[in-house]
């Protein structure tokens, strides 16, 4: 089994695609007018408009309802990325060191999903990500 993507069901797919293009500095790949993917080196953020839910089962997902998942993006320099984005995003917290060794900053996307940028900071975290 191979992890393929995290899909967000969204109200405004154009705004969400533009947001994730800005954050990831990757252009969205539009596979249909109601579906786009932001392909990064490690994972894919898939965006499906709310109307795509009907292709699965009505009511099985809804936009703006997530309060438990965090989209995490590993970056080379969380401080530099935070400086680049801080005036364009809804900041939850500035970069700080977490107990598991990552330096992390968090913000919300336009539909309220929590997004975390992190850089392995401790020796153990760097070892975990093969960065030492």
Keywords:
132 residues, alpha/beta, 2,3-Dihydroxybiphenyl 1,2-Dioxygenase, domain 1, 2 domains, four-stranded mixed β-sheet, 3 helices, 36% strand
Written account of the structure:
By secondary structure, this protein is α/β, with parallel strands linked by helices. It has 2 domains: 1-65, 2,3-Dihydroxybiphenyl 1,2-Dioxygenase, domain 1 (Roll); 66-132, 2,3-Dihydroxybiphenyl 1,2-Dioxygenase, domain 1. It is built from 3 helices and 8 strands, in the order E-H-E-E-E-E-H-E-E-E-H. The chain has helices at residues 13-24, 78-85, 123-128; strands spanning 6-10, 29-32, 35-39, 44-49, 70-74, 90-97, 102-108, 114-120. The strands form 2 sheets. A 4-stranded mixed sheet has the order 1-4-3-2, covered by helices on one side. A 4-stranded mixed sheet has the order 5-8-7-6. The protein is globular and about 45 Å long. The two termini are 28 Å apart. The model has no long low-confidence stretch (mean pLDDT 96).
């Amino acid at each position: 089994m191979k992890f393929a993507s995290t899909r967000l069901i969204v109200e405004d797919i154009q705004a969400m695609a533009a947001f994730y293009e800005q954050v990831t500095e990757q252009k969205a790949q539009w596979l249909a007018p109601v579906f786009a993917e932001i392909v990064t080196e490690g994972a894919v953020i898939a965006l499906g408009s709310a109307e795509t839910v009907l292709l699965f089962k009505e009511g099985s997902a809804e936009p703006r309802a997530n309060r438990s998942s965090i989209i995490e993006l590993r970056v080379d320099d969380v401080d530099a990325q935070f400086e680049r984005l801080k005036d364009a995003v809804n900041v939850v917290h500035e970069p700080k060191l977490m107990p598991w060794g990552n330096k992390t900053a968090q913000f919300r996307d336009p539909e309220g999903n929590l997004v975390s940028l992190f850089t392995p900071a401790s020796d153990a975290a760097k070892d975990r990500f093969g960065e030492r």
